[in-house]
Amino acid sequence: MTTTAPRSFQEIILRLQSYWAAQGCAVLQPYDMEVGAGTFHPATTLRALGSRPWAAAYVQPSRRPTDGRYGENPNRLQHYYQYQVLIKPSPANLQDLYLGSLAAIGIDATLHDIRFVEDDWESPTLGAWGLGWEVWCDGMEVSQFTYFQQVGGHDCKPVSGELTYGLERLAMYVLGIDHVMDMPFNDPASPIPLKYGDIFRQTEQEYSRWNFDQADTDMLLKHFEDAEAECERILAAGAEDKAGRRIVMAHPAYDQCIKASHLFNLLDARGVISVTERQAYIGRVRALAKKCADAFVTTEAGGGVAA
Amino acid sequence: MPDLLIELFSEEIPARMQAKAREDLKKLVTDGLVEAGLTYRAAQGFSTPRRLTLAIEGLTAESRAVREERKGPATTAPEAALQGFLRSTGLTLDQLEVRDAGKGQAYFAVIEKPGRKAAEIIAEVLEATIRAFPWPKSMRWGAGTLRWVRPLHSILCLLSDDHGAEVVALDVDGIASGNTTRGHRFLSPGAFAVTGFDDYAAKLKRAHVILSSDDRAEHIWHDATNMAFAAGLEVVEDKGLLAEVAGLVEWPVVLMGKIGEDFLGLPPEVLQTSMKEHQKFFSCRNPKTGRIEAFITVANTQTADHGATILKGNQKVLSARLSDARFFWENDLRTVKSVGMEGMAAGLAHVTFHNKLGSQADRIARIEALAREIAPLVGAAPDLAAEAARVAKADLQSAMVGEFPELQGTMGVYYAKAAGLPDAVANACKAHYQPLGPSDDVPTEPVSVAVALADKIDTLTGFWAIDEKPTGSKDPFALRRAALGVIRLVLGNGAHFSMRPIVSEATTRLLVGLIRTSHAGLLAGEDDGNEHWNWGDTVVYPDGSSAERSERELRQSIEAGEVCMEVSFAGRSRRFERPANISSDLLSFFHDRLKVHLKDQGIRHDVIDACLAMPGNDDLTLLVKRAEALAAFLKTDDGENLIQGFKRANNILTQAEAKDGVEYSFGADPKFAEDATERTLFDALDTAEAAIAPAMKSEDFAQAMSAMASLRAPIDGFFEAVQVNTDNAVVRRNRLNLLSRIRTICLSVADLTRIEG
């Protein structure tokens, strides 16, 4: 297969979208909440649970407040994009499918050195772990490849295969760009060519200031506690609604868990969480994630009820 | 005799697990085969990132038939005995034989196990091996339940002899065995069949896979050193990295790249660590300048552009990494140049060392006091040692050590020099951590020795005080290593001092500090069995008045054992031991470690015990000098025989003392000597005593023992000619007193009663 080199950030995303669509994945849209990584999308966290087959691919805007550098660092951003693929059960040829996606975005395996280097994945906030690799292309990490073993404290049966691409880093490599802000977002030959910096330099500055200096920590703390309380209340409300229908509110509860997780990240960026408190906060979010997982596996999508 | 070839082909196996996995495969399979009655001539395991392989030569084609005969109960025995025998053999009554068993008739069970084909046994053993493989971490995949390190794709299992090869049929969770494998993931991805090990290894090589990790490592090292040599450089040897890299590639292709000019000013250790940790690169050093100027990376593939694209990519990643490192380096240098090392160390006040032992800054203050005290004992200037102690751990606060913890100490030396501190102080930043293990060098610069000893003694007294001593295999704070470090520092530098007062004073100082920082409570009073503990050095009395306790008062409370480390909710306190007890206990720990250390050097445990029983045993150098002299002495004929003579004298004397109820200790007089040998012994003792006393005074144990050796012939002669317990009471008492002189002389050198044999 000969592929022409992509010319822009968005072309790489579009190629990944059509590649994974052609492999039979449902191409979903980003989740409409602030998350730290593509894994938090319920299409991964919750759908990795239970017995029902699943195949989804999507872009997820992700936020890591502590990584903000006012748009000055060539590689670090507090807001960035991940491309996420989750297939359950993991197909036997998942490595080959993955390598096919690299070919699709112009990484030619006959010219590059592509390696699977041990890297076991663990998310203490989600109570999740898996085994896999970080994938190296010429010494650079371009993806994370994981076979999920546990999510929310539940064994994954069957096992999902998860692929995560750090889009900015991958695209910078493919496009030969040294500073993320210089990366063409759309085709440079467009009537109005836009670079990554045209779209995100200002927002990186604004959010860096807010994340590090301005966010009201008392308010964030209150929101954290509200989200935690609401999550627990929703799950404690019972499966039966006022008309006697069985409706377990796993997703609304999980939204509150995601909120709590992001609020914790913001508090962390403001530097108000000490080393010992940190563990306690992570434990609180993990407890919520576990309860949401417990609830989800009792639902139809979670394989707990026959369809 | 057939040969067996097994290959388990999977997705990429972590490099660090491969060596053990190939040995485990070999052991589990060969053990299983042998247990089932097969034998083999040789077996060898191999591994690549995607396969574990086992080649067994000269396997027997089938297991031998086994005939086992068991005697049962007599025919006249009760029914229950017969039933029990049937149950244990799994036979029925009509299958038993009745034979004459000497004393009447008895039942016999004859159990015949027919021989089994090798293939049948192999299939069973291999399946059991796969299902119970001891991976450090394993996983499930897809919809299956089988566990392997990463998804297992195929099983090759082939039994071959002169007539051809045959697949050993087995099926593990849907993975059926076969005779095919695959080559390199990108260079030769197709499947191919093989007929035996030689064919397998040769075809793999054609398919761009070098099967043996040793061969891959050798290939990498060969090409790397050649390439570096051609550029006038040398590769920095790193066996661990070489083994790891050999486990990351099936077809190693070595590439060399230059490090950008901008980064050549970084310390070589920084370049080396960054390249190794993040990129698994080897470093290339310029032998003329000592600088790291290039790197070696090992790709897993060959390309049409001879690796140009790969090298460019790696170089780019390296530049990003080294830019970070340079940023840390320049930042740290700015810090030490503006606020000095002590300024850099300021933040350590907020870093906890241990929740019961206070902050790193508290600890550094203790090490400083100890280093100042130890300095004169090891020939260092106290002020310099104290300064070195204050700055030795400053680099823990540097950005570079934050990123690369393994550079602690190394960076300290650079930063201390940049801050303008003298070399002796700067070098202690690194050397005070040494020796890090039994093979690490022992520092010799006096300032470094003083701080290294202080650092380790503080660690030991601290954890001893809070009762966190090593137990069994658990030693989370590496206290055995610290104690051995102290021993090697003392012996390696011939340092001569008593350990007990130093340890005891260090413990007292520790407790004073813990009380002042409210890490320890002070007994303020007791009523009705309730203890009142006061935290901090200011005592608040029930009437609300308060008083600050002086150091003297604190020390008195510490000596009295009135300090506690915690009080439970139920009000139960846990007190610190008295410093004297802590130091005695710690000293015996030193002695235990010293025994292990000396035993490794071939000194017997009874020799060590004989020397440990002598006064001054907390001076480790003195102790070892004595033990070495005694060990050497015992290796001579004179030494061995003198011990026998001493023991004989001691036995006679002890028995007589027990019988007579007196101690024979002085008053031996030559005028009561009846025999010539007796007089000779008197003379010899006079001569020996005159020689031994000054030798002991100058701690010349070898000299003292050689003087002692001169007693051997007179003692032997005496015992041959003379009977000690004669009827003449005066002569007997005189001879016993003479024996007591032998005892005194001998025991002045070491406690020879503890020598065995």
Characterise the protein shown here:
The complex is a heterodimer of chains A (307) and B (757). Helix content of chain A is 39%, strand content 20%. Chain A has 307 residues and is α+β, with helices and mostly antiparallel strands. Chain A has 2 domains: 9-209, Bira Bifunctional Protein, Domain 2 (BirA Bifunctional Protein, domain 2), CATH 3.30.930; 216-296, Methane Monooxygenase Hydroxylase, Chain G, domain 1 (Up-down Bundle), CATH 1.20.58. In chain A, strands 1, 2, 3, 4, 5, 6, 7, 8 and 9 form a 9-stranded mixed β-sheet that branches. In chain A, helix 6 (217-236) runs antiparallel to helix 7 (250-269) and helix 7 (250-269) packs antiparallel against helix 8 (275-296). The model of chain A has no long low-confidence stretch (mean pLDDT 94). With 757 residues, chain B is an alpha+beta fold. Chain B folds into 6 domains: 3-62 and 117-206, no CATH class; 67-113, no CATH class; 213-337, no CATH class; 348-504, Hypothetical protein af1432, CATH 1.10.3210; 514-580, no CATH class; 637-754, Isoleucyl-tRNA Synthetase, Domain 1, CATH 1.10.730.10. Helix content of chain B is 49%, strand content 16%. Chain B is built from 25 helices and 24 strands. In chain B, the strands form 7 sheets. In chain B, strands 1, 2, 3, 7, 8, 9 and 10 form a 7-stranded mixed β-sheet that branches. A 4-stranded antiparallel β-sheet of chain B has the order 13-15-16-14, with helices on both faces. In chain B, strands 20-19-23-24 form a 4-stranded antiparallel β-sheet. In chain B, a hairpin with a 2-residue loop joins strand 7 (152-161) and strand 8 (164-167). In chain B, helix 9 (360-374) packs antiparallel against helix 10 (382-391), helix 14 crosses helix 18 and helix 21 packs across helix 25. Chain B is extended. Chain B starts with a strand and ends in an 8-residue tail after the last helix. The interface between A and B is large, with 35 and 39 residues.
